[in-house]
# Entry
Amino acid sequence: MVATNTTGAAAPPGTTAPRAGNPGRRGLSPHAEGMAALLVTVAIWAAFALSARALSASSLLPADAALLRFGVPLLVLLPALWRRRHRIAAVRPGPAAKIVCGAGVPFFLAAMHGGSLTSAAFVGSIVPGMVPLFVSALMAARGHGAPRGTQPAGLALIALGVAALVWRYVVPVDAGVLEGAGTLLVASGLWALYTVGLRDVDLDPVGSIGLLCLPSFAAIGLLVLTGVLPTGISHAAGSDILLFLVVQGLGVGLCAGLLYAFAIRRLGAGRASVVGSLSPVAVVLLAVPLLDESPTAAVLVGVPLITVGVVLANRRPRTPVRTRTRPEVPADA
# Structure
């Protein structure tokens, strides 16, 4: 689950992009390429939610998973990040703090802790599902006006969906699940802060990944070295290390950000956000065979409400011709 700054690169002078459906063109059309990239991204987002739940049963500790999450992209992208070092260093402190806090160590630990107390369905629904609502509140606070068009209805459905997920744990009170749900709401709010921060920086997806991962890896490394966070990676099972290296490091940390940026360039932000909203559904379906989780009635009601709400919240309101377009609610992941 990674949001990226998706400023498109201009085509070289004198070149023309091949048209979809051209008989002389080999391979997939641009639309098909974008859909393929987006579907892989949705699968990675679902894997993040599943791994957040699976961490509690693995031999790794949260700090170990964080080291893999932020360290692997740095290692893979090191040459490219070195070439972008001046642009990354030039980012203003305010937007940089939003990105580092919003998707770095605080977000990661909150998502992992919340997942350990609830279920994969909660992680996959609450964290990305509530982002449009939080982003809309942040944008309104910055003077961009209230949501319009179908966005208010979408935000209301998201809130109803989250309420449907947690209502059965209120009476009688299940303190553990409610703590987990509250922590996931914090994680979602942090991710919204990250999303807003990305709008304020002029970096390509690779630069955005570097801006996030470098200070996050340094912070988690310092917490481990000083003993604030325990680590057990030296005694962890090799299979667990490999799983989190692939899912968190390569998947979430590297591939999701690059593929989502590619998908938006091919499909546009609106269509990408609609397909991306299927992530909660994918989490629920995958959690059944992989984690032996059975969807409860609350999940069967809440997840569809959140999914439809995300679609409506990300629809761009129609504006009159020659009227400045109001920024749409960004895609949740």
